[in-house]
Amino acid sequence: MKSYDVIGFEDLLGDVTPGDLILIYGPPKVGKSIFCYQFLYSGLKGSEPCLYIAADYGSRQLEQRMMEFNWFLQPHIQNGEVYIIDLLTRLAGIKVEDSASVKFSSAQNLADLMVKVGVGTRELFRKSSKFRAVLDSLTIIFAFNPPNLVLRLMKAYKTRVSEANGIGLVVHTTGTVEPQFESSLMELVDLKIFFDGENIQVESSTGKRSAKYTITSEGIKYWGLEG
Amino acid sequence: MIVRIASGIPGLDELIGEERGSLAENTVTLVYGPPKVGKSIFCYQFAYEGFRSDEPCLYISADYGLNELERSISNFGWKFDEYRENFYIIDAISTISGLEVESRDNYFPSSVHNPTDIMVKLGMAIRQIASKSHRFRSVLDSLTTLMAFNDELLIVRVLTVYIMRIKESGGTAIVTYTEGSADSKVENMLKAIVDNIIHLDGEKLTIEAMVGSGKITASYNITSNGMIVE
Amino acid sequence: MKKTYIPKLDDILGGGIIDNASVMFSAVPGVDSEAFGYQMLHGRLKDGDKGFIYTNVAEPETITYEFNSYGWDLQKFLENGDAFFVDGSSPFLGLPSTAKYTIEDYSKMEKVIMEAIEDVPDGIGVINNLSTIIDYLGEDETIKIIKKWNLHGKKHNTSLIYLFTKWDYNTGLVEKVKRSMDCVIEVKTIEERVIIGQGFMVAHSSWSKPSNTMVLFFVVQPGGIKVYIPKILVTGPYNAGKSTFVKRISKRSVSVDRKALSAFPTTIALDIGHLEYKGFIADIFGTPGQERFDLLLDVLGRESVGAFIIVDSTAPETFGRAKEMIRKTRAEAIPKVLVANKQDLSGALSPEEIREKMKLGKDIPIIPAIVTEGKGVTDALDALLGLLYGD
Fold it and tell me: What pLDDT does A3 receive?
């Protein structure tokens, strides 16, 4: 059993270029968020800062979940290498204040989210010519907004991130909205990665490839690459 | 390092292979399955386990009013009387069935028709609990009943607020749901927004998702002493 | 007439807005439009008018907190009843609300806002946000409702301020919405890969003459919306004609000279000018040409929103230096125009030849010019404005 980990990217994703928007999708609880933490962390290790929109959990939960894999986010937050936009913590009813690297917005105020995405992309673009962006995930955003508006948000997010030459990720749980919205989402992205619990399928304009995966204490490990 | 707490279901914690417990602290677990498979019993045991360690439990009950709850619990031989001051109950059902319930400490009457009021009572209860304890348990039984009386997506949003409030104040929660009772898109959303998922089907208990653990299946039984996992 | 309390906006609108005007701020995603609505409301409240905020995107508490961060005390107006909220956000989340009006679902929205308008005669109502309404109710329903609200506003002499985020709606819809308003103010971004600035301009107003002035602004906390006077850099190798260019484009300019070395005719100083052209206002900074002043270039370049690079078309040996100065002033990250000066002299290379030699991308306009005669100067200005404002 040969194992590649996602830090390499080359074997699995091959044709990802800056400016691309990648869709991570699949049923609930298959490891999509873990892929995001890993994407964030391996970028940081390679000096690529990251804009992280935490839409399914708060910034504190993000740090905690990453610690379980021994990925420590705090030093990178202090260094301004991560720009987190937290959409949920305000709902907890406590007073939160924006800091330099962690901004609080709301799942129902998409215009405000885009203002912060604009500021975040500018700051990261000035730090590094290569940066990453993650939106994990659309699930709660779909619960808080009309689906059409969420698709509009996606177009604006894609434009903003690709203009600044970032590689963008967006996560979607299948079966949470009507099929026509899922299709529109698929049409918007440059690369699709499907997780089903055991297999991962990567689909781009140049073709398809698949591999097996498993979640370990060190993150997701892949093997058995085909295609 | 994931801190785990005891579930209160004999056999379940050992299944995950951890000494201290199975449910990761500060997470929300969805317990779901067909009707009458023991979801509520799971909740009683979870709450009772907390009481034994002097942990308060914030119990939102939309299916059974206080009187019925106390009756069911005493049928299993558990003595809630000893732990009354740790049992905070938001009773969302007694008022609408016109039942008389004696007012007492830690008792918050509400209504399934009014999720906003349930959230107000949640806030009040959390404040009282937080002044006593930095860790606590919570139960929401069940989402199905709330969705029967309200727009399903509104309940998804209310659940999101509930989850954030519980986590921010140091709680660990169980929420129950009857499989297939809501729109499938909503059901998928529920599974996506919780941290852990346990499925009960009457005979088998399946841990479909658990922070830091894989998928596990085992048999279980409901005895006169409650649910036991083999 | 009522003031808008947004700097420069009252001037452009001929003094302010008519009392019962319907005004829409149409902002592209990424620009903060909420500040406009809130600043107008705050100004009117301080002047003694009553007002309300209808929100379907943020809870009243969050908005009050936002006002505080701008240094505006909304709480006292809420307490004395001069201001109130129409809360369409809290019920949506299942959260309690203490607002005067709550809207549990969109079927009740139209009527509640009508009542709110009646509660603030001669006052102001802010609708935040129109886009959410359109995506919930659909175009036709929304336009019908807007028209009814605007009519009601006219009847009670209430100004209605709509905040609209211009997501990718089809242009037909956007046009219809704009037409139903007395006044539309576009709020845009200035971009060079990322958002480097924001500006507002009046697209139309039923009571004032059209103007294509774009006012650049920034939002400070505390303070609110402030006019931003950008820096435009004029750089390039020495003797290319930078000083002359600065003088030509500025209404008034100053050369900050170090007279100690006045024996030398070259500028070893900073040319500073002030530009007002087609409604665009900027401060012009001309950089010194000699390398020993290159330390200044980084500092000057830092807050510039655009740059002119002046080169002597007859001196290709200076092109390398020109590229170096582009790099040192960080002009590679902002919109820029190359001015190919001294086109009148023999041996002057054409813009295409210069592009070839300098290997400049097609996104950088090269404008032929004879700066001493003023030729090509307005073309260069137009080219830079075109880059700054897109469209």
Answer: 40
Domain coverage including residue B147: 22-201
Q: Rounded mean pLDDT of A35-52?
A: 93
Partners of A91 on chain B (C-beta within 8 Å) are 160-161, 164-165
Measured CA to CA, the distance from residue B108 to residue B118 in angstroms comes to 9
Q: Alpha-carbon distance B164 to B147, whole Å?
A: 19
Give residue B169's pLDDT: 93
Does A118 sit within 8 Å of C189, measured CB to CB? yes
Query: B166 in a domain, yes or no?
Result: yes
Q: What is the CATH number of the domain that holds B164?
A: 3.40.50.300
Helix or strand holding residue C299 (H, E): helix C294-301
| Domain membership flag for residue B99 | yes
Calpha distance C149→C160 (Å, rounded): 8
Closest among C156, C154, C146 to C50, alpha carbons compared: C156
Between 3.40.50.300, 3.20.190.10, 3.10.320.10, 3.40.50.720, what CATH number should domain A21-199 receive?
3.40.50.300
From CA B27, how far away is CA A223, in angstroms rounded?
31
Q: pLDDT value at position B196? A: 95
Q: Is the confidence metric ipTM above 0.90 for this complex?
A: yes
Q: Please answer whether residues A41 and A7 qualify as being in contact, where contact means their C-beta atoms are separated by less than 8 angstroms.
A: no
**Three-state SS letters, C304-342:** EEEEEEEEECCCHHHHHHHHHHHHHCCHHHCCEEEEEEC
CB-CB neighbors (< 8 A) of C93 in chain B: 157-158, 161
Which domains are present in chain C? 9-227 (3.40.50.300), 231-389 (3.40.50.300)
Residues in chain C predicted with pLDDT less than 50, given as ranges, are 258-264, 391
Q: What does the pLDDT look like over A101-157, one tens digit per residue?
A: 999 999 999 999 999 999 999 999 988 888 999 999 999 999 999 999 999 999 999
Asked, for residue B9, whether it belongs to a domain, the answer is: no
Residue B12 lies in a domain: no
Q: Using one digit for the tens of pLDDT, what is the confidence trace for B61-114? A: 999 988 888 888 888 888 877 888 899 999 999 888 777 777 778 999 999 999
Contact B160 A143 (CB under 8 A): yes
